[in-house]
Each structure stands twice: as C-alpha cells, then as structure tokens.
Amino acid sequence: MREEYRHQSRVNEDGNVVLSETRLQAIRQTADYYIKLYGDDPSMISSRESFAMKNNTLPDPEARQKLSDFFFWTAWVASTNRPDAEATYTNNWPHEPLIQNVPTTENIMWSLISIICLIAGIGFLIWAYSFLRDHNETAPQAPAADPLSKLNLTPSQKALGKYVFLTLALFVVQVGLGGVLAHYTVEGQKFYGVDISQLFPYSLIRTWHIQSALFWIATGFLTAGLFLAPIINGGKDPKYQKFGVNFLFLALLIVVVGSYSGNFFALSHQIPAEFNFWFGHQGYEYLDLGRFWQLLLFVGFLLWLWLMLRCTSHSFKQGGDKNLLAIFIASIIGVGLFYGPGLFYGEHSSITVMEYWRWWVVHLWVEGFFEVFATCALAFIFYNLGLVGYHSATVASLMAGSLFLVGGIPGTAHHFYFSGTTTPALAAGAVFSALEVVPLVLLGSEAYEHWSYQHRTSWMQKLRWPLMCFVAVAFWNMLGAGVFGFLINPPISLFYLQGLNTTAVHAHAALFGVYGFLTLGFVLLVARYLKPDFQFNEKLMKTGFWSMNIGLVLMIAISLLPIGLYQVSASISEGLWYARSEGFLQQDFLQTLRWLRTVGDLILIFGAVLFAYEVTRLTFSRRT
C-alpha cells in the first residue's frame, strides 16, 4: 500500500495518473461514503449531526460525485512523492504513519532553528531596548486642557457617528453568531432543541461569523482614519469630504447586506451554480463573500484611501519633521491597496495559487499593514493629546512598524508549509514567523504606558475606556498573537496541530483579543469627541470590559485549549485523521468541555452587549 501511494501513482509524461484496480475500488468505496454523507441517506443522519451538517447538504448527485473527486485529488497530492523527491507535494502533511507521512528532516531542522531565532531575537531586542533608548527622556508636561477638545469638529467628522454605530452593531451580531456556532458543536443540527440547520446551517453561520468580524474591525479602522485625517489637515475638510464619507458608508452597507444575502442564497442552493462564485460564496474562509461584493469592498477601500490622502498629503507642504507623517501615509496606502491580492485568483485557479493570494490578505494585509496603521494612528493621537513628544512618537512608530513588517512580510510563508511549496518557503516561514513574536515581549511596557496616561491629567479620565482597550490589546497581542501564535507556527507544530482546536485558540485570542479591542478603542475614542459631554455609565462600562476579557479567557481555558491539546496527543500518536474523526470528537468528556464553553461565551456576549449599549446611547444622544 505504501509503495502504491508514494511511488506508483505519479503523473506520467502524458499528464495522466494511472491507478491500480485495487486503488480504484477503494476510491469508489470512499466516494460512496461521501455521496451518502452529503445527501439525505437515512443511514448517515447520526454522522451528519456529529459533523454539524444539515441533511441533503448537496442535493445534486453530480455535485456530490465531483466533491468526492476533489477529495481524492487532495488526498493524492498529500500522499504522492514529488518528482525526484522523498516527500509528498504537501511535505508529508497530514501525519499518517501507515504511508510514512512523517515530518521531513527539513521540517524538524527549521523548527529548531526558528526556536533559536526566537530566543536570540528576544535577547537582542532587550539589549537594544536597554542600551539604545534614551533613558533620560522625560514625557512632555500634559496640557491643562484636552487639545483636541479645542478643535471644532469638521462636517466629515460629525458624519462618523453612524460608522461608530455600524461597527458596534456588527460586533454584537458577530459575537451572537459565535455563540450559535459554538452550540452547533454540541447539538449538530439544533439550537437548544430547535432544528435550525435546514434554514441556517453551520456553514452559513460560520461564514457570517467570520465575515462579520472582518467587517466590523475594518469599519472601525476606517472610522479612526477618517477622524484623524482632518486633524492632520489642520482641523479642516477638503471640498466634498463629507459627501465622500457618507458615500463610503452607503457602499459599506451595500457590501454587508449584499454579501450576507449572497451567502444565504448560495448555501440554500437558490443561486445558479455559474453565478455562485460571483454573487454567492467563494468557499474560502475569510474571503467567503462573492467576487462581485469583494470587488465593491476593494473599491470602498480605494475610496477611503483617496479620502485619507487628500487630507494628509497637504501636510507635507508645511515645515518641520515629516517622518511620522510619512510612516502614517505609507500605512494608509498599505491598508488601502493590500486587500487587492484577494482578487488575484479566479474561480478555477489551482488550490495552491488560491491559498497563496488568500494569505496575502489574511496575514499580510491584516497582521502587517493594519498593525503598522494602528501603531502610527495611536502615535498621532497621543502626540496631539500632548502626552508624547513628536520625536518619541516617530521613533516608536518606525521601530514598531519595522519589527512588525520585517517578521510579518516573509513570515507569511508559515501558511505555505504544506500547500505545494519547497524547503526555502518552509525555512523563511519558520524563521521570520518566530521573529514576528519578538516585538510582542515588550508590550507590557506599552500597556503600562497607555494605562498611566489616564492618571497624567484630570481630563484624560474621559478617555479611560479607550485606553483600557489599548491595554487589553497589548496583553492579548503578547498572549494570543505571541504565545498561542508561536504554539502553532513552527513547521513541526503545524504538522501535527493544523486544523485542530489549537488553531481556534490562536484565532480567537489574536483576532478578537488584539484587533477586536483595538477597534473598540478606536471607536470609543472617536465617539468620545463626537459627544464630549456625554457621561458613560462607569459601572456598565467596567462590567462590559472585564466581562469580555474574562469570557475570552474562560472560552480558551475551559474548552478550546483542553480539547485542542487532547487532539494534539491523538494526532501525534495516531494521525491527524483520528484527531478530527467522528468517534474521537464525540467522546462524552469532549462533549462536556464543549458545553462548558457556553459559560465563557455567555459572559463575553454579555460584556459585548453592555459595551454596545453604552456606545449606542452615546451615538444617539442629543448632546452635541
């Protein structure tokens, strides 16, 4: 069997793959299982519930047959040696000892090197931080009154209230969908006894959950940029800036409603197959929305980029140091343009090409340019508030941006270990993704600095909750992006851990913990200046903030992480197939752990609702 899988099913010179009759029989038997599973065969009802699939997921028998063919080819790629090599096209992933799918020498070697690079990087960073920073530098004296409160809001800034509301509305929708999604893992087709899978199947709720996260986080970042731009422009709007802001909001609404509707109609098979890719569901996590809606969203980012540049570029004509402005504008351009690579593959591109460009968006756009934009935006905000000097803000932005991008750009390759790439990609991904973690070790210092701002002067108390969100960002950046990210990033780790609950641990702690709290901090800050005399209910804000953090901790600590570690043990000892199998995941104590996650989910959702309630109250307040 091993010989037949690894050596006897290669591509011939004529481009064909010749299989033995024995293997063809095995393929037909396996295909029959999937054809029954994705149909409505009564014998598979229990399995469909275990996998949280609705009955008759694919009504068309021809589509089920094509899906089983696709499964064969992915299995073929993962089990057949490359030409002139002793490893498969997927570098022997997934783990399957029966056919010698075990870690390659390069996998183990570069995993060890990545750990050495991490330790060395942390050491050198601490040395540089200790010796190169100016220990005698003192923070500027905080002004007696908030400098930004002396500025009159421009018409475009006043128009941002609806952006703040949309951000929080999508946030509540997203966490609510997450609760439904988590419940699907214990009642595969029901929500507390009510069968909702035929109308709202797991695949649809999962799509909306992830898409909502990207929408509300992106909307919050756009809001922060549009609020800052007139300040950089000397407190005034260019002509038609308000019109552009309102038009962009309308475009965002159309994309949100259109893409959600397209997802629903696609997964309920109410869109003809030939239109599904364009208007329904692309079938790729984080880029699920149809290509038409994806294009509209990219046009929206280009419009935002134009609105930002027409405000900020004029500042170069003024005298003085322009380094911080240059870094900020570079990050704006990155945010505006680097959603575009998600359009570089087509409906029928190979899976390797699709995977490549998709991670340009998910990793490089979000974890790279969003991170730099956030760093520069915060530097501008704290400089304009008189809390840091211009030189300090510039140096901090330059250093942080450089560290994020030096690790982040080549570090994107850690998503390509097993998608058809060769050893150089594996080496670059291992080393540079380890270096991505390095700057995160000093975030405790940044967190303390942000926390201490509220005590520098009495008027900063009004900005307490945005600052607390930025403190949470530093904590979750260290834990979620750093610790849990490195848990799965080395090639040897990802070889065994990819696709297990350990991935969800990193995803929740990093995406919500870092970008979620960063977005909440941004919109709270903007809302504060839209209605400066509004008084938050401190008790509700405090309860909401700590509920979200405690809920996220509980979700990870009592459910996701224990299940993930138990899966890791099964993956290493038996194989990845076993760690993801129906029989393994339906064990009683794993079911209990998934039920326990409800505690963390409800606490987090409760905190999100309180936060959203207070921000909604502010947004619609009659105070001006």
From TrEMBL:
<feature type="transmembrane region" description="Helical">
    <location>
        <begin position="550"/>
        <end position="572"/>
    </location>
</feature>
<dbReference type="InterPro" id="IPR054309">
    <property type="entry name" value="NorB_cytochrome_c-like"/>
</dbReference>
<keyword id="KW-1133">Transmembrane helix</keyword>
<feature type="transmembrane region" description="Helical">
    <location>
        <begin position="108"/>
        <end position="132"/>
    </location>
</feature>
<feature type="transmembrane region" description="Helical">
    <location>
        <begin position="424"/>
        <end position="444"/>
    </location>
</feature>
<dbReference type="Pfam" id="PF22085">
    <property type="entry name" value="NorB_cytochrome_c-like"/>
</dbReference>
<dbReference type="InterPro" id="IPR000883">
    <property type="entry name" value="Cyt_C_Oxase_1"/>
</dbReference>
<dbReference type="GO" id="GO:0009060">
    <property type="term" value="P:aerobic respiration"/>
</dbReference>
<feature type="transmembrane region" description="Helical">
    <location>
        <begin position="324"/>
        <end position="345"/>
    </location>
</feature>
<keyword id="KW-0812">Transmembrane</keyword>
<dbReference type="Pfam" id="PF00115">
    <property type="entry name" value="COX1"/>
</dbReference>
<feature type="transmembrane region" description="Helical">
    <location>
        <begin position="465"/>
        <end position="488"/>
    </location>
</feature>
<dbReference type="InterPro" id="IPR036927">
    <property type="entry name" value="Cyt_c_oxase-like_su1_sf"/>
</dbReference>
<dbReference type="GO" id="GO:0016020">
    <property type="term" value="C:membrane"/>
</dbReference>
<feature type="transmembrane region" description="Helical">
    <location>
        <begin position="163"/>
        <end position="184"/>
    </location>
</feature>
<protein>
    <submittedName>
        <fullName>NorB protein</fullName>
    </submittedName>
</protein>
<feature type="transmembrane region" description="Helical">
    <location>
        <begin position="292"/>
        <end position="312"/>
    </location>
</feature>
<feature type="transmembrane region" description="Helical">
    <location>
        <begin position="213"/>
        <end position="232"/>
    </location>
</feature>
<dbReference type="GO" id="GO:0004129">
    <property type="term" value="F:cytochrome-c oxidase activity"/>
</dbReference>
<feature type="transmembrane region" description="Helical">
    <location>
        <begin position="244"/>
        <end position="267"/>
    </location>
</feature>
<feature type="transmembrane region" description="Helical">
    <location>
        <begin position="395"/>
        <end position="418"/>
    </location>
</feature>
<feature type="transmembrane region" description="Helical">
    <location>
        <begin position="508"/>
        <end position="530"/>
    </location>
</feature>
<dbReference type="GO" id="GO:0020037">
    <property type="term" value="F:heme binding"/>
</dbReference>
<feature type="transmembrane region" description="Helical">
    <location>
        <begin position="592"/>
        <end position="613"/>
    </location>
</feature>
<feature type="transmembrane region" description="Helical">
    <location>
        <begin position="357"/>
        <end position="383"/>
    </location>
</feature>
<feature type="domain" description="Nitric oxide reductase subunit B cytochrome c-like">
    <location>
        <begin position="2"/>
        <end position="95"/>
    </location>
</feature>
<keyword id="KW-0472">Membrane</keyword>
